[in-house]
Design brief:
With 338 residues, the chain is of the alpha+beta class. It folds into 3 domains: 9-53, no CATH class; 59-289, Hypothetical protein af1432, CATH 1.10.3210; 293-331. The protein is 52% helix and 9% strand. It has 13 helices and 6 strands. It has helices spanning 38-53, 59-82, 87-106, 111-120, 125-142, 147-159, 169-172, 180-186, 189-197, 205-213, 234-250, 260-272, 278-292, and strands at residues 21-22, 28-30, 296-298, 304-311, 314-322, 325-328. A 4-stranded antiparallel beta sheet has the order 3-4-5-6. Strand 5 (314-322) and strand 6 form a beta hairpin. Helix 3 crosses helix 6, helix 6 (147-159) packs across helix 10 (205-213) and helix 11 (234-250) packs across helix 12. The chain is globular and about 70 Å long. The chain binds fe (ii) ion (FE2) (2 copies). One fe (ii) ion binds at residues 160-161, 189, 214-215. It comes from Priestia taiwanensis.
Length: 338
């Protein structure tokens, strides 16, 4: 999947920029109002070249991994049910394949496009594991952590729900409401996951904690231990954001392909309610916004608009251009991006 340039760089010489231009990591390259000189043009070209090199989303690799993970996890489920085999030996190979994909993703420029891709895929536990792993790694990148940490975050995400393999599929996919017993069983998956992974000395300590604590919430309303913010490691808080984000997209199968901003807004509410960490969520949303500058979005009134500016502190309520009219979404309670 390749993305075409949103503007021709050469045409910008001597132009006064009508919008900020950001680099690969979302940093400001040239600000709005700048008159573009030869030197600045060269700077933009260098960044664009770099970006083009990294532009391709490795779709084939993603699908191959999804296939491998599916086979691997089905095999694991059988092993768990029969009580045989070394579980962690079995997952080592899959972790390696996953890390390869994560490495690619950590250097992909179009995060927003990538996130849309994840959203549009299926929402099986296999896909959820890959998505949360990749998202956790990418959030780490956005927050400025080094690749080494982002790979650990990736593994945390990849293995966070492994305990669900101890829960019968008939319960996991039950279309009706779960009984109290069934619900209590499902809520034990963090403990099951921890138990499954802890015997392997190669597994990083934070991967274990991720499996055990990813449903804890900062305000103490999570499970299994009702921990509070200061008791939950920051990297697990990142994992919880990635997990919640992916779970929210899964709930919206009816609206496949809609803007990641819609989900971002839902996530922002979680931060305001004190369940998830705003320090993690806000930069994540702002990064998505920057990636979406100049992109076409659909509004709830059925009209298409183009994001032309986003306001600090109001990342999900940008300025958009609709039919040659600028609309400030901050002042329009009736309008939002879907
Ligand atoms: Fe979970
Ligand atoms: Fe999950």
């Amino acid at each position: 999947m390749e993305k075409s340039n949103s503007f021709e760089i050469d045409n910008l010489l001597d132009e006064v920029l009508k919008e900020n231009i950001y680099g690969e990591m979302g940093g400001l390259l040239l600000s709005k109002g700048t008159k573009v000189t030869e030197r600045q043009l060269a700077l933009l070209k260098r960044h664009r070249l770099e970006a083009q090199r990294r532009d391709r989303i490795p779709m084939q690799q993603f699908e191959q991994l999804l296939n491998d993970v599916q086979l691997n996890m089905d095999h694991l489920r059988n092993l768990i049910e029969s009580g045989e085999g070394d579980l962690v030996e079995e997952i080592d190979g899959t972790i390696e394949t996953f890390s390869g994909l994560l490495e690619e993703m950590l250097h992909t420029r179009h995060l927003a496009e990538f996130i849309e891709l994840l959203q549009g895929y299926d929402h099986s536990i296999y896909c959820h594991s890959i998505n949360v792993g990749l998202l956790a790694g990418l959030i780490g990148k956005i927050l400025g952590f080094p690749d080494k940490v982002n790979h650990i975050l990736g593994q945390m995400g990849f293995l966070h729900d492994i305990g669900k393999l101890r829960i019968q599929e008939s319960i996991l996919h039950k279309p009706a409401r779960l009984s109290d017993d069934e619900y209590a069983h499902v809520k034990k998956h963090p403990i099951y996951g921890y138990q499954l992974l802890k015997s392997n000395k190669k597994i990083n300590r934070f991967v274990l904690l991720g499996a055990l604590l990813h449903h804890e919430r900062l305000d103490g309303t999570g499970y299994p231990f009702s921990l509070k913010k200061e008791q939950i490691p920051f990297c697990v808080q990142i994992l919880s954001v990635a997990d919640t984000y992916d779970a929210m997209t899964a709930k919206r199968t009816y609206s496949k392909g809609k803007s990641p901003l819609y989900v971002a807004e839902e996530l922002r509410k979680e931060a305001f309610e004190g369940k998830l960490n705003a320090v993690i969520i806000l930069p994540f949303i702002e990064y998505i916004m920057r990636q979406m500058l100049n992109q076409e979005v659909l509004l709830n009134n059925g009209k298409f608009g183009k994001i032309i500016y986003y306001f600090e502190g109001h990342p999900t309520k940008p300025l958009i251009l609709v039919d040659n009219e600028c609309i400030d979404l901050r002042s329009r309670k009736d309008l939002f991006i879907i």
